[in-house]
Amino acid sequence: MNLNKYIYNRSILTLCLLVFGFFSCDEDSILEEIPLDTLTTANLYSSVSELELAVHGLHDRTRDRFFYDGNPMMTVLVGGNGADLSYNGENPAGSAFLTDYPSQLVPANDGRVRRYWERGFEIIQMANVLLDAIEGIGPDDPNFAGEEEQLAIIAGEGRFFRAFMYRTLVALHGGLPIFEDAVASPRTDLVRASEEETYNFIIADLEFAANNLPIPGEGAAQGRITRGAARHLLAEVYNTVGRYDDAISMASSVINDFGYDLMRVRFGSRFNDNDPVLQDTTDSRGDVFNDLFLFGNHNLPENTEDIWVIQSEPLTLVNTIDGRHPGERAFGPAYHRLGTGPDGIRAIKGPNFDLFMPQFGRPVAWAKLTNYAAYDIWKGDWDNDIRNSNHNIFRTWRYNNPESKWNGRLIRPAVDWLEREDNADPDSPLKLDANGNTTNRKSDATIRNDTIQYLWPYYMKIAAPNQHFSQLNREGGGFSNNDHYAFRLSETYLHRAEAHMRKGDLASAAADINVIRERAGATPVAPADVNLDYLLDERVRELYGEEWRLVTLMRLREVDGVNVYVERTRRFYDNDQAIGGTGAGIQDFNRLWPIPQSEIDLNIDAVLEQNPGYN
C-alpha cells in the first residue's frame, strides 16, 4: 500500500474514530469537495476543545505505536536490540529482528523495516491534519475569538510531535520526504530532502514549540508537552547537527529556567524495606533513584526531574483505552521458565499462582542484556553506585521452594547442575568420573539457555514490583500500568555534556556528568577521562530503558572517523548464537537503514532514492 494513501486514510479514520468515535465516518464522503453533513479536516474542528482532542490522539498514537508496542518497536529503539545493549533472549538463534543484518535489514523487509517508516509518517500525518486545521482558521471565526494564545500552544504541540517523529526517522534513514501539510490524496512524486534540510525542518518546528508551549507546571494536564520537553529535544538535535553552543544554551535553559532539579531526597511511594526478594541484603533499603520509577511517583508535584512522562492507565469501565506498559514482558528474563532445580523440585515459585512472582511480573526475555550493559559498565563502582544496587538491578536469583534443600541458595546454573553424590543436598560432595572430572547434568546449550533466557540482571525501573492490576493469575501477564519517562532531566545534563565534549571543553563536560554521578554515589569522572565511549556508558547507567538507544547511536553517524552505531554493535553485541554471528553481521553501510522498497516501487512519478549499499 502506498505510504501517502496509507497515512492519509489511517489519519482521517483515526481522527474520526478516536476523537469523534460516536459519528459515522465514510471515506467516500470525506473526499467530497463541499460536504454538508460529514466530518472532514475542514469542518472537524469548531472549538479549541475539539482541537485538544486531536492533541490527545497524537499522544495516544505515539504512546501505543512506539513506547507501548512490545516487540520489536520498543525493544529495538529503546532497548538497543541488535546494537550494543541487548538481543532477543527468548530465541537468540532464531529470526528476531537484527540477529542477521545482511538478511533482515533489507529494503524488501516490509514486515520490519517498513513498520518504523509507516508508523512514523502516520503520526506526522496526524500532526499535519491538526496543523492544517489551525492554519485554516480565519481571523474572524467567532468559534476561536480571543483564543490566539491557546491556538499557538496547540500548534506547538502538533509541531513537537511532527519534529519528534522526523527526528527518529532521519536518524534511521537519513534525508526524508518532507510533508509540511497533510496529504490530501495519494502521491507518487515524492523526493527525499537532504539530511541537512530535514534537520532544518525539525529545528524550525522545535524552535516554534520551544517558544509557544506552556511553561512547565502550567500545562493542561499531566504528560502534556511543555517548553521544557521542546527545548530538551532541541538540545539533542542541535548536538546532532553540530550547533554545540546552541545545544548548551538550550540545555541550560531547561536546567535553569523552569524549576527542574535532580531528585536528591527520598519521595513518594518507597521501596518496601521488608520485601524479602528485592531487599535480599540488609543494606538494600531503597534510594532516591529507585523512588523515581516506583508506581505513582512519575507525576508527583515533588518530582522535579520529569520533563515528559508517557501516561498509563488501567483498563476500567470508564477507561477503555488499553494503556498498559509492556516493559516487563519485553525487558525482563523469563525466570518462570527455569523449571526444576538440581533436585527435580520446582526452582522458583510465586506465592500465589506458583509460576509468577509479584516483584517481577511475567517477562519473556525479548531484550536480553549484553555483558556490556549487564556487567562491564558497572565494574568501576560496583558497590557504591546506587543505580547498581540489587533493588535497582536485581541480580540475586535464588531457589525459593521451601520443599527443597536448595531453598534460599543463589542460583548458579554452571555450578548447580554438576552431579553430586546426592543431588537433593546442595552440600553433598561432587561426583567425579574415572578421570577425576566433574560431570554436568545439563548440556552447554541448556545451561546457556538458563543464562540467556531465564536468569540475568533485571533493570527494575522497567518493572512494577507488586503493582499489577490485570491478569492477576499471571502477575500482569508481562504488562504494568507504570508511567514511563520519555525525557528526564538527567538526560538534559548529558546533552549539555555532549556539547561541551564535542567543543573540547572536557572540564565542563565532566562537571555535567558528575552532577548525575554525585546523586548516584559514584566516583566522579576526571575531565581527562571524558570521551564519547564514557558518555555513552553513562547514558546506559542512567537511562537504560528510557532513552531511544538506537536513535542515540545512529544520530551520531561518524565521530572522529568512527561509525558509532556499526562499531559499537561489532564491539558489544555478544550473542554468539545469532544467525549473523557476533555483531549480527552488521555492515558499514548499515549506518543508515534502507528506504522500504515498496515505497520506491510505488513512487512512479519521481525517484525516491535508496540509501547506499541497499541497491
Topology, please?
Layout: H1 3-19, H2 27-30, H3 48-67, H4 70-77, E1 86-87, H5 101-104, H6 113-135, H7 148-173, H8 195-212, H9 227-240, H10 244-257, H11 288-291, E2 306-310, H12 327-331, E3 368-369, H13 371-374, E4 393-394, H14 413-416, H15 444-454, E5 458-459, E6 484-488, H16 489-503, H17 506-520, H18 532-543, H19 549-555, E7 558-559, E8 562-563, H20 564-572, H21 597-602
Antiparallel strand pairs: 1-3, 2-6, 4-5, 7-8
Number of helices: 21
User: What can be said about the biggest beta sheet?
Assistant: 2 strands, antiparallel
In terms of quaternary structure, the protein is single chain
The side-by-side strand order for the widest beta sheet comes to 1-3
Q: How would you explain this protein's 3D organization?
A:
The structure is a single chain. This protein is mainly alpha-helical. It has 21 helices and 8 strands. The strands form 4 sheets. The protein has a two-stranded antiparallel sheet with strand order 1-3. Helix 3 packs parallel to helix 7 (148-173), helix 7 packs across helix 19 and helix 8 packs antiparallel against helix 9 (227-240). 47% of the residues are buried.
